[in-house]
From TrEMBL, chain A:
Single GO MF descriptor: dipeptide transmembrane transporter activity
The entry's keywords: Cell membrane, Membrane, Transmembrane, Transmembrane helix, Transport
GO cellular component: plasma membrane
Gene3D superfamilies named among the record's database cross-references: MetI-like (1.10.3720.10)
InterPro entries on file: BPD_transp_1_N, MetI-like, MetI-like_sf
Taxon lineage: Bacteria, Pseudomonadati, Pseudomonadota, Alphaproteobacteria, Rhodospirillales
Protein location: Cell membrane
A Pfam family recorded for this sequence: BPD_transp_1
Domain called ABC transmembrane type-1: residue spans: 95-304
Protein's name in the database: ABC transporter permease
UniProtKB/TrEMBL annotation, chain B:
GO cellular component, one term: outer membrane-bounded periplasmic space
Organism: Ferrovibrio terrae
CDD domains to which the protein is assigned, alphabetical: PBP2_NikA_DppA_OppA_like_5
Protein's UniProt keywords contain Calcium: no
Protein name: ABC transporter substrate-binding protein
InterPro entries in alphabetical order: Peptide/Ni-bd (IPR030678), SBP_5 (IPR039424), SBP_5_dom (IPR000914)
Single GO molecular function: peptide transmembrane transporter activity
Superkingdom assignment: Bacteria
Primary location class: periplasm
Keywords assigned by UniProt, alphabetized: Signal
Length: 313, 501
């Protein structure tokens, strides 16, 4: 286990370096000049030239990359061209918001998806299975932005129960925070719940048909022990990987959902930054997300070890 | 039981809290997140909306575009029109308590002119020096007479920041702006909120009725309106034209609108690059046929629900700068066809670049359908906005749909677009006769003389068609019906003084 961890950690840094080069290179392929995008309709040529100089955009790309990566190694992610705030400040402001949204969405997804998957597998081919499948299909195929707007119209405009959008920090007012987060978390969570449900269902079906379940039953174990301890635990392995990937997806910012509910997280940050060619911000967000993905994958691998004894040899 | 009581108490507190706050706080929905909150560096319309609360200007405009006093109470031009002397309002302080005086004006104008990355340098390029005549009198000297200067000072170039804060914060001023407006800066969380609070030392504080304004950006127009309907917002800017009818029917809301000072038009590359050798770029007859195949009223109905104002010049027909002797041409498909025949190309291909905004895309489609009847083959090239600007800059287009937000003085919509080698001259038009007229219109402050110059310019531009002007949108606002005292201004900005709820 320790050796495995060390090996994984050793490839972490080169991977990140590689990712950073890709991020930087891809961004240069974006058409449109940041200085011109920033100048907007004013277009004073001298101002544009000064902005290029100030943000090193007039230097060759490898020099720009060197300056950027050098800064990051010292904790300096650069400055947003558009709003002139340090990127590190923006990232620190948005990251907790996105993590909270991701955690809440994940909770909702797990609370709905896992039991639904188990129930539908246990009632394979009977009505609870059909109901779960239809709901699951609906969850997968409903676009987030549509569900979001419908929820705003119902719960905010018509019923007036929840704020339509906006964000309140939990340290400021926990209750208001939950009120603001429940709709976006639900919109994101239901989409993922459907994915969980389908994977849990197929994993459970596979496991339930295996020999050791028959053996467990033959030993006269209670059905809930068979399902809970023997079947579900094994079925959970592929679901864990899936969970880690979905969580990474959530961290990369649920772009549309954050836009609709005006949740100031990574998704909103990166959309605005891309449209304004705010390079430093895009790079910061992508690098953070890539790091999160890599770490989550590592965590998923560790979780495998803990859940599935067969992998420990 | 305990729990129920606690819940009821909590609910009561929440209701009271909400009620109390709404009487004092204005919750304002913006269409985007503003850029840097520094008048010298700012470039977006939306940041100007926030500046209306934060930063007073030397002069302002009234709803009829007349220049009126703000931080300067009176002004006069020297006999040779080369010096503008302004008397300043006494007893004005910045939000940090610093005094506003002629030295502060000098500091601000010089900052606009010299700061790295300044977006105001071009607007103030005519100003050579600033003299402090006495603490409350300042004189702006120009190299040559420059009539648009006064109107320029009604916008960001005329905004005054505290010299002390400006020197202390340098290029980080945007993180904690200090001005002399009715509200002072409290905090900004990027893409989430900007909060300002009433400034007790404001020179006209009795006319300021809100203790706080919370600006929140909502990019999606539907979501912005849903927030107004649910009470999360009291006021929103840039309502979508298709929602105007719904707002009018809602008794809890009110609709307000005014014609913009800007325009929507199709810029045609007639000399900027090799792409000007296209049929439409190289032949004035084809451009004329293109215009004659357009029905501006139809365009207005389809794209803007009839809420825009059709136009054929850089200012709207109700503007003092509009030349009535150059009227909007009627649609005439037969004549357009005849012109194409004369030009020897009855089926010209036009590549039309359009930004991917909803309005611009719809305009492109309607233009495509209308011109098709005359024989044009318009090919729409929808391009993301930042990229399209880059293409315009390089001359990498044949025709380009572009909106300009407009300036209070017609010169701001005209000079930079049609003067030879000017920064916004995407069409590449360069006509010495027109250049002379444009320069003449800047030499005098007499409106009649300037109108005469603009009329000559309108005739040349309408014959050459480097830009085919289409229409002028309306600024549309929706607000809580309880809010009173809101007045529309053609620059689209909101004056917060005088408003209450």
């Amino acid at each position: 286990m320790t050796r495995f961890l060390l090996r994984r950690l050793a490839i972490l840094l080169p991977t990140l370096l590689f990712v950073s080069i890709i991020i930087f290179g891809l961004q240069q392929l974006l058409p449109g000049d940041p200085a011109i995008a920033m100048a907007g309709e004013e277009r004073d040529p001298q101002a544009i030239a000064e902005v290029r100089a100030k943000y090193n955009l007039d230097k060759p790309i490898w020099v720009q990359y060197g300056l950027w990566i050098g800064g990051i190694l010292q904790g300096d992610f650069g400055e947003s061209i558009r709003i002139q705030l340090p990127v590190s400040q923006l990232l620190l402001e948005k990251l907790p918001v996105t993590i909270e949204l991701a955690l809440l969405s994940m909770l909702i997804a797990l609370a709905i998806g896992l039991p639904a998957g188990v129930i539908s597998a246990l009632h394979n081919g009977r009505w609870p299975d059909y109901v779960a499948n239809v709901i699951g299909l609906w969850g997968l195929s409903t676009p987030n932005f549509w569900l979001g707007i419908m929820m705003i119209l119902l719960f905010s405009v018509h019923l007036g129960w929840l704020p339509a959008s906006g964000y309140v920090s939990p340290t400021e007012d926990l209750w208001a925070n939950l009120q603001a987060m429940i709709m976006p978390a639900f919109v994101l969570g239901t989409g993922i719940a459907a994915v969980f449900m389908r994977h849990t269902r197929s994993a459970m079906l596979q496991v339930m048909a295996s020999d050791y379940i028959r053996t467990a039953r033959a030993k006269g174990l209670y059905e809930r022990v068979v399902i809970g301890k023997h079947a579900f635990r094994n079925a959970a392995v592929p679901v864990i990987t899936l969970g880690a990937l979905e969580f990474g997806q959530l961290l990369s910012g649920a772009v549309l959902t954050e836009q609709i509910f005006s949740i100031p997280g990574f998704g909103k940050l990166i959309v605005d930054a891309v449209f304004n060619r705010d390079y430093a911000v895009v790079q910061g967000v992508v690098l953070c997300t890539a790091t999160a993905y890599i770490l989550l994958n590592l965590l998923a691998d560790i979780a495998y070890f803990l859940v599935n004894p067969r992998l420990r040899t | 039981m305990m729990r129920k009581t606690a819940f009821a108490a909590l609910a009561a507190v929440m209701v009271l809290g909400a009620g109390g706050a709404s009487a004092q706080t204005l919750k304002f929905g913006l269409a985007e997140d503003p850029d840097a909150l520094d008048p010298t560096l700012a470039r977006t319309f939306v940041s100007r909306l926030v500046f209306s609360a934060l930063c007073d200007k030397l002069v302002d405009i009234d709803p009829n575009l007349k220049v009126v006093p703000q931080l300067a109470t009176e002004w006069s031009w020297s006999a040779d029109n080369k010096a503008l002397t302004m008397k300043l309002r006494p007893n004005v302080t910045f939000h940090d308590g610093e005094k506003f005086d002629a030295e502060a004006v000098k500091y601000n104008i010089e900052r606009h002119k010299t700061m790295q990355g300044s977006q105001r340098r071009g607007e103030l390029s005519a100003v050579t020096t600033v003299d402090v005549v006495d603490p409350l009198t300042v004189r702006l000297n120009t190299q040559a007479p420059f009539a648009p200067l006064l109107a320029t000072l009604t916008d960001r170039a005329g905004m005054m920041i505290s010299p002390k804060a400006g020197k202390a914060l340098g290029d980080k001023f945007a993180t904690a702006p200090v001005c002399a407006g009715p509200f002072k800066f409290v905090e900004r969380v990027a893409q989430d909120r900007i909060i300002v609070e009433k400034y007790d030392g404001y020179w006209a504080k009795d006319n300021v009725n809100f203790s706080r304004i919370e600006f929140r950006p909502f990019i999606d127009a539907t979501v912005r309106l849903a927030n107004l309907r649910s009470g999360q917002l009291d006021f929103l800017e840039r309502l979508s034209a298709t929602d105007a009818g719904g707002v009018q029917k809602d008794s809890k809301l009110k609709l307000a609108s005014i014609t913009e000072i800007g325009y929507y038009g199709i810029t045609i590359n007639i000399g900027k690059s090799d792409k000007s050798k296209s049929p439409i770029g190289s032949n004035a007859k084809i451009r004329e046929a293109f215009e004659l195949s357009l029905d501006r009223n139809g365009l207005n109905k389809v794209v803007f629900d009839g809420l825009a104002v059709p136009g054929n010049q850089w200012v709207a027909p109700n503007n003092p700068g509009y030349s009535k002797s150059v009227p909007i041409p009627k649609r005439d498909v037969a004549k357009a066809k005849a012109l194409l025949k004369e030009a020897g190309n009855t089926n010209p291909v036009v590549n039309l670049v359009t930004p991917t905004t909803t309005d611009a895309n719809k305009i492109a489609q309607v233009v495509q359908a209308m011109t098709k009847e005359a024989g044009f083959d318009v090919r729409i090239q929808a391009t993301e906005f930042a990229t399209s600007l880059n293409m315009a800059d390089k001359g990498d287009f044949e025709a380009y749909i572009l909106a300009w937000s407009g300036r209070p003085d017609p010169d701001g919509n005209l000079y930079s677009f049609h003067g030879c080698k000017q920064p916004l001259n995407y069409s590449g038009m360069c006509n010495p006769a027109l250049d002379e007229i444009l320069n003449d219109s800047r030499l005098t402050t007499d409106l009649a003389q300037r109108q005469a110059a603009w009329e000559k310019a309108a005739k040349i531009i309408n014959a050459e068609r480097p830009i085919i002007y289409l229409l002028h949108r309306k600024w549309l606002y929706a607000h809580n019906a309880k809010l009173t005292g809101f007045k529309e201004y053609p620059d689209g900005l909101v004056r917060f003084a005088g408003m209450k709820m």
